[in-house]
C-alpha cells in the first residue's frame, strides 16, 4: 500500500495488490480510464513491442464531495494518473503526449499543472513553431520527484515518462471544458525525443520525423510562488485555501506575464542569469 495522503492532501492511497487507487471517506468515487499499448502504437519507438497491455490509469475528477460543486462551477478538474514502470522494448513507459487547444476567443492555449505524489517523473515539454507542428523551437526536460510541481505553460505540448523502477503517481489541475489534442503527436510518431534504456542508464534519442529539433534542454524544477507552485504544498490544498488562485488555468489570457516569467526559469540560460 502506498499512502498518498500527505503529499496529495486527500485520503488517497494506491493498492499494490489490486493495482487500484483507493479513495477514502468523503471522496467522489471515480473509475479510471485505461491507456492501452494498442492505442499508443503510433507514438512508440517500438510499436511492435508486446511487453505490457495496460500502461497507465487516469482517474479524472477526483474531489472531496463537499468541494465537487465549487470545482465544477470554477471550470476546473483534478485528476490522478498512475503510470506503470518498465519498458516497451527499450523505451520507458510514457503517456501518449498531447497539446491543449486555444481558449475560445483568445490566442492563448490552456495550461496545466502537475504534482508528483510517488516515484520519479520526466516531463518532456515541447513548443512547436507557429503553424509548423513538425518544427520544434524549444524542448525541455524536467525531472520531478515527490512534492515537486511542474507547470505546462501555454503553447507547449507534453509527455510524462516513467523511467524509474517503481510506479509513478501524479496529480494535476486543468480546465475542465476542453479536450486534449493528440493528433500532432500521432502524426509525428511521438515527441521530439524518445527516452530509451541504455547500458549506462537512460538516453534520449531524437525523433527524426521532426524537420527541426533543437538540443534537449534539461531544467530543474522551478518553484513559482505566484501560482503557489511550492514544494510541499499539495495542489489540492491550494484550491482549498484559495479557490480563486487557480484562475490562471481557466483564464490564461489574463496571466501571460506570469507565464513568461515562469518560462524564463526553465528555459536555456536561466541558470546563468
Features:
single chain; 273 residues; mainly beta; Jelly Rolls; 6 helices; 17 strands
Rg value = 18 Å
In spatial order, strands of the major sheet run 4-5-6-14-9-12
- Our measurement of the CA-to-CA distance between the termini, rounded to an integer number of angstroms, reads 43 Å
Instruction: Give the second-level CATH assignment, the architecture.
Output: Sandwich
The average pLDDT value, as a whole number, equals: 94
Question: What is the CATH fold-level name?
Answer: Jelly Rolls
Number of helices: 6
CATH H-level superfamily title: Jelly Rolls
β-strand amount: 25-35%
Estimate nothing, just give the exact number of structural domains.
Answer: 1
Unreliable sequence segments? none
From N to C, what is the helix and strand string? Answer: EHEEEEHEEEEEEEEEHEEEHHH
Q: What's the main sheet like? A: 6 strands, antiparallel
Structural class: mainly beta
Summarize the structure.
The chain has six helices and 17 strands. It is mainly β and 273 residues long.
Can you lay out the helices and strands and say which pair or pack?
Elements: E1 2-3, H1 5-8, E2 12-15, E3 20-23, E4 33-36, E5 54-60, H2 68-73, E6 76-83, E7 87-88, E8 91-92, E9 112-118, E10 121-129, E11 132-144, E12 149-152, E13 157-161, E14 168-175, H3 183-187, E15 193-198, E16 201-206, E17 217-219, H4 235-241, H5 247-250, H6 256-266
Parallel strand pairs: 11-17
Antiparallel strand pairs: 1-2, 2-3, 4-5, 5-6, 6-14, 7-8, 9-12, 9-14, 10-11, 10-13, 15-16
